Amino acid sequence: MFFLKNEVMRYFKKNVDMYLEFYNRGLIKKLPPYIKVVKKMNKITGYQFYGSLKNGYVYIKLEKIRKRLRYFSLMLFLWEFLLTVFIVFIFYVALKRIFDRQRNTEEFLRFVLIAMSHKLGNFLSSQKLNLELSEIDPESKERLKLAMDEVERDFKTIYSTLKSMKLEGEKLEKVDVVSELKNIVDSFGVLSRFKVNVEGKIPSLTLNSDDFRLVLHELVNNALKYSEGVIEIEVAPYNRNSVKVAVRNKIKHISRGSGIGVKVVEFLCRRNGWIFTRKAIQDMFEAILIFSVPKKGVFFK
Fold first, then answer.
1. Where are the domains of the chain?
2. Strands 172-175 and 56-60
3. pTM of the predicted structure, to 2 decimals
4. Does residue 299 carry a pLDDT above 70?
5. How far is 274 from 216, CA to CA, in rounded Å?
6. According to CATH, what is the number of the domain 94-292?
7. In terms of Cα–Cα distance, which of 163, 198, 179, 175 is closest to 268?
8. In terms of C-beta density within 10 A (0-12 exposed, 13-18 middle, 19 or more buried), how is residue 55 classed?
């Protein structure tokens, strides 16, 4: 602003000098309204003394220049303020995304360590109990096999989830919900256990495809392991950009699992902003998922 003011005043002085020279030579009869030449040196309101000529004294009016400088200063301040706010906002969004990603990653890794430690502890305790009860016989072998199978399934679930957690960001793809669900059901090879009902026109969704497939796989896998009879799966549009998937099954009267599969589903739904609810009424269990398109600029919720 200091240099701008000096340049404006320098240009204004040259302009005044030019008019005064033309006036002295008789080339112009009338001066601009911001220049006045008087015969006697007096105080003129709104004008200030500039210099003297052979035939009088020169006064100039700087109000117009001051107004322009004030207007320019105000515009400059506003633009600088908006630019500063915009840059701060960009830094805020970038840092928030980094911190949110780090927080979610740390939360999940903490969950993995606790879950695996608990699972391995239970596994070792069950094996010690088997060894204390009897020598290796068919019944003990079967119990060992079941325990090892359970550990293996949970390990594969956590390993698949870790693979889906790409630190460089989400992979958003357009997904056909019904087609993907049918592929997952077919992969278990027991089609007679499932009844899939599709209601209305199901929209395709653009979302994190890896997390989507893993969530559906875990729900179907849990329903198959801990239920008896037919598993009902209902797919319906929830609203314009959301799809509802409901899994209902009759609870099998066996010991409960570690719950790692459900915890993985809860974590992935929270990370993507999906809704996951579950409830058990007497011997019936129902899990409801609502998949929705993520909001722009949002990685984690």
1. 2-61, 94-292
2. unpaired
3. 0.51
4. no
5. 12
6. 3.30.565.10
7. 163
8. exposed
